[in-house]
Structure formats: C-alpha cells, structure tokens
Design brief:
Elements (H helix, E strand, L loop, with lengths): L12 E6 L5 E7 L2 H10 L4 H9 L2 E6 L3 H15 L15 E4 L8 E4 L7 E3 L5 H15 L6 H4 L6 H4 L13 H15 L4 H16 L3 H16 L14 E9 L2 E10 L2 E11 L5 H12 L8 E4 L6 H12 L4 E3 L4 H21 L1 H12 L7 E10 L2 E11 L2 E2 L5 E4 L7 H12 L3 E2 L7 E2 L3 E5 L2 H14 L4 E5 L6 E3 L4 E2 L6 H31 L1
Parallel strand pairs: 7-10, 10-11, 12-18, 16-17, 18-19
Antiparallel strand pairs: 1-2, 1-3, 4-5, 4-6, 7-8, 8-9, 12-13, 13-14, 13-15, 19-20, 20-21
Helix pairs in contact: 4-7, 4-9, 8-9, 12-16, 14-15
Length: 531
C-alpha cells in the first residue's frame, strides 16, 4: 500500500497512481499537485480511495504550465491508458474543435467534437464558451455559413444573411471563387495570421464610427478584442500527423538523467524517466548513447525533439531513417509549440533529479558556482512592501532539494530605514542572532547557502550581515528579469535555460516570493480591519 505522497511540487500538473507493474490505476489533474494528492492520504476512510492506495505501488507527476494544460494532458493520458479507477474521461466524449469543412464545395465553420477527414480543425480547446465566441467572430468577419447541410440545400437565405453574418452561398449570392477566398482568410486567421484580419476589423470599426453606427462599431471592437485575446490552442494537444518523441537529458558528473515524452496523434501518451551511470564527458555524447540504446528495440517516431543535438546527429538521422524505412528527423526546438513541450520535459526532468539523486545535483551546483559548502540546506529570503508601507520579510528552507515547511519563517520589519536592502539586513540579523553551525546541536542551524531574491544591492546587504555575524554560509542572489545569478565575489552568470541548477534556484526564489506576498497581503488586510 502506498503510504504517503512524498514531497511534491506546488504546481499545476497531472498525477498518476501506478501499480507494482507500472500500469496507471488512476490519473488526475491538479492546480496544486502537493495539496491535491495529500487529500487522498487523508481520506483513507473512503473505501474507493483506500482500495486505490492499497493497489498503488508508486506515484508519478508531470508538471504543466497551467491548469488548462493539465486538464488536456489528463484527458490524453486517460484515453491512452484507460486506468481502471478513472470513469469521467473514458467515454467517447472529447474536447471540442473549430472545424472548417474544406471538403465541401461551400465550406462552413462549425463547433465540432468529431472532425471530418479533409477539414481544417483548430483544437482541442479547453474553453468551449470562448471557442463559440471565436466562431461567432470569424463568421461575422468572413461571412461563412454556419448552417447544416439540410438547411443549406433549401437555397433560401436565412436570417444570418440579412444581418450580414453569412454571404448566402446557398442562394448564389456569392460565387464559388469569392467564397473560397473568404474561407482562405478564415483559415489563415485560425492558423494565427491575425495581422490582416485585425487591420480589416480596425478599418471597419472606424468606418462604422464615422457613419455614426456606434452599435456596429462596438461589435467590431468586441470582435477585435476576441481575436487579440484568444490563444490558438494548447502546446500539449496540438493535432499532427507526425508521431513525436521528446527527450531531454541532464548530465551531472557520472550520472545521466533522461526523460522521454511520447506524443501520438498530437497527444502525450506516455512519460518515462531514466537514471543511468555514464562515462560520457558531455551531455551531447550521453544523449547520443541513450538514443542509440533506447531505440534499439523500440519503434521510431517521425520526429525526435531533443534538449541538445546529440554527437554525430547527422549520422544518427541516417541510421534511424534506414532502421525505420522512412525519414526520421532529430532536432532541437527554439520557439513555438515544440519548445514549450521541450520546456515542460526539462522542468519535469529537473524535479526528477532533485528527488532521485540530490547528491549529484548538489555537487554540480557546488562545482559550477564555486561554493565552499555542499548546498544541502538552502534558505531563501525576500522582502515585500507597497510603497515602503507594512514591510515584511519571508524565509523558506529547502533540504536536499525538498521544501521544509516547518522551518519557514515570516518577519515584520521593525527598525530598518527605507529600502529593500536595509530591510533584508534586519531580517538576516534577526534570523541568525541565535544561530549555530549547520550540524551543531540546539539553537537554529546556519544553512549552507543563502539565496536572495534580488541583485547586487541585496547581495551587498547579506555580505555585511554575514561579516558582522561571523557566518560561514555561501551567498547567492537571483534577479528575475534575466534570471541572472550574482555570486558572492560580485561576478554574475545566467545558468543554462532548463538546467536542474537553474530550475532549483528558481523554485526556491519563487517559493519565498510567494510567501512574502501572502504575508504582506494578510498584514494589509489585518490593518484595514482594525481601522
């Protein structure tokens, strides 16, 4: 029986309860993985929950950027694995699409859950109401028909034609070629080419306003806002005919860490993690060895998206293409949908590294940043205020890559003069007034590393407090704008995007920032209630 959830990230994502054989038993999504999963272990009096925990041997998570992405990923995984404890998503329902029936002589635009072969489709879409609004805007702009075949065959212009929402191809009010140009414009718009459509709407809005048709101008403005604010689909479930694999790698000393995401029919169908010893000297070389061994007995997809181009990528492309009997592309992703999927893989790989082998990650951090101490115990500090009013400070603690919430602290700034650096120095002096060495008995232990939310001013204040108090910990400051890391000697660097080092420090910085903001908000509310 699975006893507890372990230390999970406080982020949106998907969680999978798995049997001893690795088969998913239940797949769910959460806006906060730690909070959601912990509820199962508090509800063991529920027979169904207890039966799930008794059959579960492990728990896996996949972090996403938003709850909407988690919802789509949950749907994809449930449809792929059909876990026995899921009931909501195993029926034949699916997320909706916006469909333009290009196979028809006069295509229409529809809200659809089953796309006809030959049609253009945008989706799947999470927000059905927003999808209908977009169909409404597109039909108004390009005057495409929205009626079914039975009504279309009657050949009588309907109400939508009279209110200028349809060009009435059913009654021959528009020629086939002209109508096809309207369809092409709608397809371009739904593919994300919104510039021409936006210019046309702005021109129409000004013309209507000049004619004192303010109601029509307001509708054109609403259409323009709908087009500008609509996000064209999710990066997780984009429809594609090409099967893709996403593989990210991280090399820490002699330890190699890898994640594999399988995208089939545009859906994430499987995720796997690997922790393997390696003699490779570079990430590119380790990735090459992993790919050759991984696909030795596995079917090859049409495209392999990797975190770095492996050594001898050209030779590997030829070898895999010959092995599959068709073209296999190995590529990196630098923008767009593919990059966002790769970023998700990197983020989940970093969390896997933290959880499975923090020793290797800690040694990499110590070596890369030139730290004196192994960063086992890290504390993060931040200051929050609004125009220097009600200033507060916050501290969070991480041990071996995992949050230690019992050590979190909040501070009210009492005597410091105005300024973030001055407030930070007061917090540090109060935090370490009765501190002891990291492994000493009694008192409050001194961490191995202090991470400050900020830049050189915050680092200078921490250096002064460290010297006055005689502390032995290392100091770092992480600035948000460039994710630039300031070292204690005054130098700076920008850690590689997606690296476990950068993601761990960002996680600590973001955690203390959230805590400081929450503390400040509660403080303001308390003062307002007393007034």
């Amino acid at each position: 029986m699975l006893k507890n959830s372990g230390s999970l990230p406080e982020r949106p994502g998907v969680y999978l309860f798995k049997s001893a054989a690795g088969k998913p038993l239940y797949i769910g999504k959460a806006s906060d993985l730690r909070q959601r999963v912990s509820q199962y272990f508090r509800r063991q009096d529920d027979p169904l929950v207890r039966r799930l925990l008794e059959r579960s041997a492990s728990l896996e998570t996949i972090v996403t950027e938003s709850e909407s992405d988690a919802l789509l990923l949950e749907s994809d995984l449930v449809h792929s694995h059909l876990p026995p404890f899921n009931i909501r998503l195993k029926d034949d329902k699916s997320f909706p699409f916006i469909e333009i029936t290009l196979a028809d002589e006069f295509p229409g635009i529809f809200y659809s859950r089953r796309v006809v072969v030959g049609s253009f489709a945008l989706g799947p879409l999470v927000d059905a109401r927003r999808a209908r609004r977009l169909i409404d805007a597109v039909s108004r702009l390009f005057r495409l028909r929205t009626c079914g075949e039975a009504l279309f065959r009657k050949g009588i212009p309907c109400l939508y034609h009279h209110i200028e929402r349809c060009s009435a191809p059913c009654a021959g009010k528009v020629g086939r070629d002209a109508y096809r140009r309207q369809v092409a414009g709608a397809v371009d718009l739904l593919k994300g080419r919104k510039g021409k459509a936006g210019a046309r709407l702005r021109e129409r809005m000004r013309a209507l306003a000049a004619c004192l048709d303010f109601e029509g101008a307001q509708k054109a403005k609403e259409d323009l806002e709908a087009l500008g604010g609509f996000s064209l689909g999710s990066y997780i479930t984009r429809r594609t005919r090409c099967d893709r694999d996403v593989i990210a790698a991280s090399l820490l000393g002699r330890e190699g860490f890898f994640i594999h995401l399988a995208l089939r029919d545009g859906r994430v169908s499987r995720s796997e993690f690997f922790h393997l010893p390696t003699l490779c000297e570079s990430e590119e070389e380790a990735l090459r060895e992993f790919l050759v061994d991984f696909y030795r007995l596995r079917p090859l997809p049409g495209e392999i998206i990797v975190s770095r181009l492996p050594a001898q990528a050209g030779e590997m492309t030829g070898m895999f293409s010959a092995q599959a009997g068709r073209r296999v592309l190995i590529c990196c992703a630098h923008r767009g949908v593919k990059k966002r999927v790769l970023d998700m893989a990197r983020k989940n790989l970093a969390l896997f590294v933290q959880k499975s082998d923090y020793r290797a990650l800690g040694e990499e951090i110590q070596r890369t940043l030139g730290l004196r101490n192994f960063p086992s115990h890290i504390e993060g500090f931040d200051i929050s205020h609004l125009g220097e009013k009600n200033r507060v400070g916050a501290m969070v603690a991480f041990k071996d890559g995992q949050a230690e919430k019992r050590l979190y602290r909040s501070y009210l700034i009492r005597n410091a003069p105005p300024g973030d650096s001055e407030a930070l120095e007061e917090v540090l002096r109060r935090r370490f007034a009765k501190a002891v060495p990291p492994h000493g008995g009694g008192g409050t232990p001194v961490p191995d590393l202090l991470l400050l939310d900020g830049g050189l001013p915050q680092l200078g204040a921490a250096r002064q407090a460290k010297a006055d108090l005689g502390l032995s910990c290392d100091l770092l400051a992480l600035a948000k704008r460039e994710e630039r890391l300031f070292l204690e000697d005054g130098t700076s660097m920008v850690p590689a995007s997606g690296s476990p080092l950068r993601l761990l420090l960002q996680q600590i910085r973001d955690e203390v920032h959230r805590r400081a903001i929450r503390h400040h908000r509660k403080r303001r509310e308390k003062i307002q209630q007393c007034q």
